[in-house]
Amino acid sequence: MGAGASKKTKGTDKHDNETPTFTLAEPTAPPYNPEYPTRGLTPQQPSPHPAHLYPWGQPPGTYCQACAAPSHDDGMSSPNEYFLETPSIEVLRTGEHQVNEEALKKYFSSKKSHGGKILSITEDDDCFVINFENLNDAREVLSHSHELDGTQLHIRNRKSPTIEVITDGTITEDRLKTYFENRRNGGGPIDGAIKKTPQGVYYITFKNKRAAIDAVQKPSHSIDGKQVAVAEKLSLIDRRSLLIKGIPAGCSHGHLRDYLEGKDSKGTLHIAGIYLGEDVSVAVVSLFHDINGETRHEIGTKAKQGDLAVSVSPMVVTRSVQLSGITKQSGITRDLLLNYFENTERSGGGKVLDINMDKKKGTAVISFKDPAVVQRVVQRPFHQFDCGSVSVCPHYGALGTVTDTDFLTSSKTPFDPNVPRVIKRNELNIVNIGPSKLRLLEKQLPNLKVEFPNVDFDIDHDQHRITIDGVDHETTQARDNLNEKLQEFKEYRWSISDELQSILSRDNTKKAMERAFAEANVQKGVHFTVENNEVIIVGVDKSTVDIAESCARSTLIENSKNIPKQILILSDWDHFVKKSNDDAKNNAKMSYDKTSGKVHIVGLKREVDDIDRKLDEFLKQHSFETLFVDVERPIVKVLVKRQKDQLRKIELDNDVSIDDMGTRFKIQGPRDRMKKVSDEIKGLASKVIATTVQYKKPGLGKLFSDDTFKKLLKGIEENKSCALQWDCKTWTPSPKVVSLMG
Fold first, then answer.
1. Residue 66 contacts by C-beta under 8 Å, 6 or more apart in sequence?
2. What is the extent of the structural domain holding 714?
3. Whole-model pTM above 0.85?
4. What sign has the CA pseudo-torsion 500, 506, 508, 510?
5. What are the tens digits of pLDDT across the range 459-483?
């Protein structure tokens, strides 16, 4: 072939409409040699392992390092594929003088090379870097072989010298730039601005590969005393995975499998399983065997034009795994996972870049520095910890959280059942549960957690519901178990007074009730509460409720008794009531009604009995008598009118009541005070002056019978605080005033 000639490379891709784009490493380029890492960025895989662990191929969804490296499944070497991130290619140095910048620019700008406008040509460690203006020009050049003045050119896509940097979030971009521009830190000149993802991952692109290689290969990086994780940005295409988007609603996994397999004209595509995320229109399909770019392009084109009209895209190999089935009570922490998965002997893992845990979903995503670790980790579908086992599967960023897996195949090749699966977490709710039943259910949770170790129970008392969050079918079983228990719960109610409700609302009274239930051995099977003047007892069954009711009624007492109303007006009665209630320490209360003379005592039995005993003693000490003191009516009237305050003072001083009975006073009070009060009343009566006057004049009888004159006499009585009594019948016709007192 003459100078400047090019020819189409067999078995390569031309993806005019596919996004994202990728390219093949030129078959004529020397393969990566781990002994000479300076020849380029270290690929994402170590040396191929000698044989598959599975005779029919890798487990679905895993990245086979042997297959990612040149494959030998068909007896022919197949090149690695990388996403074409920039419109740049590399031309390896040949040592020939005719291969120089000027000659390369002239050649790759011409139509012979299928190239186009070149923005720049620079030199890197082992190659010339040609930057095209158009990405399609770079892709077209890579799809052909090239010869310049008789020298075969080895070209390959320009794998961006970009690293990923994960920090604790406290290091600024300026500080990162200063650190990684320093060659002593394994870096070098930075090309463009540092990019940051919403997840806080920084991407730093260097101007040459050597800086990226050195940064990745340096054992550790510490900035201002803070460790940062550094890894190579992945761009190697996973030959055993396809990203499917636009899956119609209702499309079954089997139908999707048959649809995609039918788009391969060679009939070599065999789908092993499907990984699903929260978006049901997106999935990742895993394959039994490698496929190349040509096959992928054919499937993608036909799938877009077919009935389902789904898009098919390549995927970069993953460096992450997802753990699922982590329960809240498992005690699995970030530190525990870090120590476990960095221990290669225990887990098959390696250097961990980052761990993101989602406690609500029960998942954790672990990112490794070396993607080859993923294959080793997922070879064991379950990893055992002291606190339980968790499921492990590859994690794909395009899916977010992997929520389900469906392993199916139309191939006759047998399929190993121990493939990595997702333990799917289900969340179910039981709503509208009564407050008392919900409290009793809360007491049953310890036993339920033993019965269902992979299920979390979350009670929301405000919303009156319980949320059951667990793995696979265990969630449904736990919910059914709870519903059965709720159906078996029994309830008993009885009405109580305001006073008793107030007492039962106190913590010390509640504790007394709990002690009573504990003595009857029903404390775990019953819930006791008081609301709206009702005692509510909920138990796990009828017999438990009956026992609890008996305990409550024997612990709580309500007594009422009638006592003389005069007792309630004694000066020391209120003091007695207050002291009795204070001594009960709010475990019982005594109240009374002065109108009816009724005393009400409620509370815990011991305290109620104590108050009742004290009341009996008080009544004995204050036994009542009734005594009458005879006094003439006029004197009674004078005392009631002129000595009212003095009579009231006698009542208060002696805790008695004095009532006007017309011609005598009625005294009620303690027996030992009757004589004293009687003497005091007689003493007041003796001080009343009595005067008798007689008149003998005609017409007095008529005058004393006149209503107007009677009113006048009545006014004199009121104004002078005296009593007038007259008798007009003693001598006729003249009236006689019998007495005048004042």
1. 48, 49, 50, 51, 52
2. 690-741
3. no
4. positive
5. 999 999 999 887 667 888 889 999 9
